[in-house]
Design goal:
Helix content is 65%, strand content 0%. It is mainly alpha-helical. It has 2 domains: 7-54, Homeodomain-like (Arc Repressor Mutant, subunit A, Orthogonal Bundle), CATH 1.10.10; 56-216, Tetracycline Repressor, domain 2. The longest helix is centred in the N-terminal third of the chain and has 25 residues, at 56-80. It is elongated and about 60 Å long. Mean pLDDT is 88; it is low at 176-194. Keywords: DNA-binding, Transcription, Transcription regulation. It comes from Georgenia muralis.
Length: 231
């Protein structure tokens, strides 16, 4: 079990190890990463590493949990300052895209966790979903989203929107395929001026928010009855 530092210096050392471990796992992958690579990059001895973590597996899981905690704090801070639920959605999505632009390791670590620590991957999504569901339930009670919106289904579906949009425009870049080549007729070159300050171009955020707003809007055209089923 990960040890809790007893001193301020120990807290800094543990945080440094986690920071470097994040970079090593993201850059090399779990199987090619090693405690030696982590400690050398962090500038600490292996004995110091074992004061805080018992194994490579444990530090990997702590890295994933740390990223989860940080991205949730970023989204909560942004969405909590919004005036209503739809504004909170936009602020939360923007914060997520900005975080992933600044911390691309989030995607890389969670993709590895699917095979290395599936229970941590599930915890990652469940922790995000829990806060999301609570926010949607509160918004529904205030009439800010449709009364027929299922908060749990909506939360997981909208998390999928954020995940995929972030992968396409943040992780892969504007116009680039995963292999680094561009779309037909394109160069696949990085965006001029570097990453977008909000993680995705404003037009992409607008398009994603249009889907979100239509899904959650309190005044929508009633669904027609399903043939042979219940309305």
């Amino acid at each position: 079990m990960s040890a809790v530092p007893r001193t301020e210096r120990g807290t800094r050392t543990r945080a440094r190890i986690l920071e470097v471990a994040t970079e090593v796992f993201a850059g090399h992958g779990y199987h090619d990463a090693s405690i030696v690579k982590i400690t050398e990059a962090a500038g600490v001895g292996q004995g110091t590493f074992y004061l805080y973590f018992s194994s490579k597996q444990e530090v990997f899981e702590e890295v994933a949990k740390d990223l989860n905690s940080r991205v949730r704090r970023a989204m909560l801070a942004a969405s909590s300052a919004a005036g209503d639920r739809l504004a909170a959605e936009r602020a939360g999505f923007r914060a997520f895209f900005r975080f992933t632009a600044e911390n691309p390791a989030l995607y890389r670590i969670m993709r590895q966790a699917e095979f290395v620590a599936p229970h941590v991957l599930r915890l990652h999504y469940e922790r995000i979903a829990a806060g999301y569901v609570a926010g949607l339930r509160a918004a529904r009670s205030r009439g800010e989203i449709g009364a027929d919106v299922d908060p749990e289904v909506a939360a997981w579906a909208l998390m999928g929107v954020g995940e995929m949009v972030g992968m396409r425009w943040v992780l892969w870049g504007d116009g680039a395929r995963p292999d680094g080549t561009g779309p037909a007729g394109g160069t696949g070159a990085p965006r001029a001026g570097g990453p977008h300050p909000d993680g995705v171009p404003e037009a992409v955020l607008d398009a994603a928010m249009l889907l979100v707003e239509r899904a959650l809007a309190p005044h929508r055209t009633p669904r027609p009855p399903i043939l042979g089923g219940t309305p």
